[in-house]
Write a structure and sequence with these properties.
The radius of gyration is 15 Å and the shape is globular. Helix content is about 0%, strand content about 50%. The strands form two sheets. Strands 1, 2, 3, 6, 7, 8, 9, 10 and 11 form a nine-stranded mixed sheet that branches. Strands 4-5 form a two-stranded antiparallel sheet. By secondary structure, the protein is mainly β.
Amino acid sequence: MRNIPVDTSALSFTVAGEPEPKIVDRATGEVKRDAEGRDLYTIPLLPKPNDDRRNPVIVVTFPSIDFPQIPEGVQVRPVGLVTFFWQMNNRSGMGFRCEAIRPAEVKSA
């Protein structure tokens, strides 16, 4: 699996929904962890500007020690955002992952 860095310098991201734990086993509720043992979460983000109006929201996976309190509608910055191609059971797609979700830096006027 190859990670492709995403240039976010010309983009802003708005939270489009609440973060959710990435579940490994729905029967047990076990949360998936990264190599460092941190729980993984997903969060829907709306990138702007967005030239593709058909599917504007991307779901980004990120690690966190505690359950992240990130309200819907705020602007954030995905640190180290990468995309990757996945394929499993005759399905395939693009995924997004980052190292952290941080508050967006407010640009001074």
